[in-house]
Amino acid sequence: MTGSDYGNLVRTHLTRVEQHNSSALDDVAELVLAAVQADGTILTAGAGHSLAAVAETFYRAGGLACVRPIYHPELLPMHGAISSTSAERRSGLAGEVLREAGLAPHDVLFVFSTSGVNHYPVELALEAANAGCPVVAVTSVSASAQAPRRAGTTLAEVATVVLDNLVPPGDSTYPVGAPVTAAVSTLATTFLWNLLMVRLLDKATEQGVQLPLWRSANVEGGDAANAEMLRHYQTRIPQLG
């Protein structure tokens, strides 16, 4: 295998991800559509590089306006690489973050964590489930199976629905047989999120539901189109300020 084959490797992986998650994507789209119809909030959370997926869900062109990112500065590697790993493994942080955000049964919590074994993602899911809030895990079941169970269980085991990004243990994909580079988790996870957005739009259209979708601020009329949604959601989503 040569570097020129890497694109084929990624395309093959994304095709597998789409096929594997076909049924689960329908289930998640129903959960999210119900939350939108109930004027609920879609909360999205992750740690480390999984925060790239959280950024994908929030305040971007074509995205849902009712998304609230769950975030703590200690979890971002750019604020301290070693300390971010420690924070993800620390019990109790998830509870602090969720108490600040608030949860309701008509909300949906997405937890992005490829390994799915550290305290932060697992405790996010447990706290939300205890509050009666559905939890969608975007994770790798195979990576979780081989990782140390630091929290005693895995994100996949405690979630309401699992979207499996099929990322191999260690995340790297190249070269095949002895991978040392080219992590695929960010590509696979953001692909899953956008597959969900497509399913959601189709279901909403079928049911005559108008989704609150952001327009690009860099196209004519974008700011005006977004103004009403900002007024509606800004009080409950402070990150929109």
Automatic annotation (TrEMBL):
SUPFAM superfamilies in the record: SIS domain
Organism name: Lentzea guizhouensis
Any Gene Ontology biological process: carbohydrate derivative metabolic process
Pfam families documented for this protein: SIS_2
PROSITE patterns membership: SIS (PS51464)
InterPro entries: RpiR-like_SIS (IPR035472), SIS_dom (IPR001347), SIS_dom_sf (IPR046348), SIS_GmhA/DiaA_subfam (IPR050099)
One annotated GO molecular function: carbohydrate derivative binding
CDD domains in the cross-refs: SIS_RpiR (cd05013)
PANTHER family: PHOSPHOHEPTOSE ISOMERASE (PTHR30390:SF7), SEDOHEPTULOSE 7-PHOSPHATE ISOMERASE / DNAA INITIATOR-ASSOCIATING FACTOR FOR REPLICATION INITIATION (PTHR30390)
Name of the protein in its database record: SIS domain-containing protein
